[in-house]
Amino acid sequence: MPDYSAATPRRPKGAPAPARPGRYTAFVRTLWVLFVGGALVAGGYVLAVNSNFLNLFGRMPNLKSLENPRSELASEIYSADGVLLGKYFRENRTPAEYKDLPQNLIDALVATEDVRFEQHSGIDPRSISRAVAKLGRGGGGSTLTQQVAKVLFKTRPDQPNTLNDGLLNGSGKVGILIAKTKEWLLAIRLERNYTKREILRMYLNTVEYGSNAFGINTAAKTFFNKAPRDLTTPEAATLVGIVNAPGRFSPKVHPDRSRRRRNWVLRQMAKAHYIPATELAADTAQPIVLHYSVENAAKGLAPYFRTEVAKSLLAWAKETDHDLYADGLKIYTTIDSRMQQHAEAAVNEHLALQQKWFSAHWKGQLPWRDENGKVIPNFLNISMRRTERYKSLMNIYDGNRDSVNYYLRKKYKMQVFSWQGEKEVMMSPLDSLAYYKRYLQAGFMAMNPLNGQVKAWVGGPNFKYFKFDHVRQGKRQPGSTFKPIVYTAAIDQGYSPCYPRPDVATTFPAVAGRAPYTPQNFEGGYSGRTFTLRQALARSMNSITAWLVYKLTPEIVVGYAKRLGITSPVDAVPSVGFGASDCSIFELCGVYATFVNKGVWTSPVMVTRIEDKNGNVLREFQPQTKEVLSEETAYIMTNMLQASTTEPGGTSTILHTGFKFPNEIGAKTGTTSNYSDAWFMGITPDLVCGMWIGGEDRSIHFRTGAYGQGARLALPLYGIFMKKVYADKDIAINRGPFPLPAKPLSIEIDCSKYTGAAQRDTIPYDQKMAQPDLQGPDKQDI
């Protein structure tokens, strides 16, 4: 057996016993050991979180992210004259500079969220115990810097990203503790990288205020229609009070609760000596007066245009690794805000009147009719099946038509559009569809033909209720507005504007599967008289256009349509000259601009440049151009289009006789079968305008030319718009004549010696087809 006695020497007899430590000393030593041990454990824990040990905690942001913290910023779209048209965003946030933040806002924030903000370096020791105590309720006791870290880097477990993909991140209190730890670490780093002012600015620019308002700029505009610098102390306190719980303290949704919260913020300000007691009493007594307006795509100028621009920008953003809805881009467009306002006002004014007549015209009757004027059976049900609502219901109820039909016929309280303003009604989805099908639609575009810049764009009656764009997205038969393409081909093939041709029938012979085709004039017959080509275009005579198509061949006409900018499919058929193939206003504006621009086709341009959030130019845009006509042919066509407004019997003489425009204007009207589509194209030296009016479906239209033809349904819109433009002294618009070509013309364009017989006894078109009123000669149709 081992001898253990030698291992421990005995105390000699008589020697004093060693002193034992007192209880207090032992306690202190124990505390010290625990403290050191705890510090080592805590330090190890912090290091583990910081390094994402074994991928337990999720990664930490790198230095670059800290130096350039990213939050989503709304991209802004501007007019050519510097007016903000609207924004593209997921989070509606536009950053404010610190100099634009009023002191009362800063005071309210500090007093409420972090009264010792200036004394700490990211972590407030007094708050840590509160944070630990509240872990089970999502934390608490965060400094402003920690809150900035939380918002910027999305540290919380319910905010999925690569910072929260650790194995322990979603584990209840453990996950919250990890998130708080990251926020403490990030707060310290933020304090090292930024000044207190910069951190305050970050906070106010990043937090959410509810109502899709992110950042103080958007919040001040949304709730009070003000810039932050103009906020009163009670308004600043209201906004600061919201950020703690936007849904709970919204002054729009919960005004009483919001006022109590605001007053608590004001008391905190008084407690911190930011406002005197006398001011506190006055401020807390004030009601909250909102000027509430949530920004969305339907509000602001040119919503249809902004939507179309977004389509092209999304493709650019994908190619260049940008995010249109989060990068804070500045997009500068060609739109003139004043022209846009005039265009929207003109469409509203004209369409409201036409709708009044249309509603009276079909009063008590269903307007969806076939070519024989008979009601189309099952029209609404067929139309409903094309809607997203129907598809959604079919998906929800697994194709059970009984359930779907029940909900399609169930009435709900809803807001609907009317020209007298929004109104609240009880309607079923089918009722709503029938209601909106009865509304006339419109599209309007104005562009500068010399540089392709789009100056105004109205895609429909009201973007909130009618999202479909009738400028570029919508394509309909252009009717007689296509005829100038035929005449352009004729001029190029050697025909003179003064070439005489009798008004007689032209028949296209039958070919495989197609019967003989004999186009008739609008009035239905033929006069037998002789007209020049200039007169024929002015009067929009189908007989002479048909003869030209016959002589040129439909294939030649299609070739010219493509040369002049028609990108939609065009069928080489005898009816091509009458606009039988669909195209858009956008395409036709490019065609007519070529005549004004001396034969150079110029692609319509919507955006001039894109800048990043710091003002660096990312891209500039130039129009595509191509010389497709000789300058002589282009000028001759411009001159022939003027005949529509000057020749007796011309379809657009009312522009001079009725609207009293003294300057040179070229024009062309267009009407399709059964008056389904009414078109008008107008040109001046630096402005080309195109417009269309009709029903959402081709089967919905007026029944008579007195209401439904282009000269009646579309032309007045141009007159209303141009009157507004000419009256606006801030718009520089050329009222002079069309410029002459550089070289003398090689063919005669003065056709007066050929026109005497045709002009005699011709009633001016605008007198023959005067605009009817509701009590006029067509009242039997009402």
Word description of this protein:
- The protein is an alpha+beta fold.
- Among the domains are: 93-285, Orthogonal Bundle (Penicillin binding protein transpeptidase fold), CATH 1.10.3810.10; 443-727, DD-peptidase/beta-lactamase superfamily (Beta-lactamase), CATH 3.40.710.
- Helices cover 41% and strands 11% of the residues.
- It has 29 helices and 19 strands.
- The protein has a 5-stranded mixed beta sheet with strand order 2-1-6-14-15, with helices on one face.
- Helix 10 (255-271) packs antiparallel against helix 11 (277-285), helix 13 (337-361) packs antiparallel against helix 27 and helix 18 (483-492) packs across helix 23 (631-646).
- It is elongated, with a radius of gyration of 37 Å.
- The N and C termini lie far apart (127 Å).
Short account of what is shown:
Pathway: Cell wall biogenesis; peptidoglycan biosynthesis. The chain is α+β, with helices and mostly antiparallel strands.
Termini Cα gap: 127 Å
* Biggest beta sheet summary: 5 strands, mixed
For this structure, what is the CATH homologous superfamily of the domain at 443-727? DD-peptidase/beta-lactamase superfamily
Radius of gyration: 37 Å
> Could you name the ranges where pLDDT drops below 50 across 5 or more consecutive residues?
1-8, 757-782
Name given to the CATH architecture of the domain at 443-727: 3-Layer(aba) Sandwich
Structural class: alpha+beta
Say how many strands there are.
19
Kindly estimate the percentage of residues that lie in beta strands according to DSSP: 5-15%
Largest beta sheet: strand ordering = 2-1-6-14-15
Approximately how much helix is present in the residues?
A: 40-55%
Mean pLDDT: 88
Shape annotation:
elongated
CATH topology of the domain at 443-727: Beta-lactamase
- Tally of DSSP helical segments: 29
The CATH class name of the domain at 443-727 reads Alpha Beta
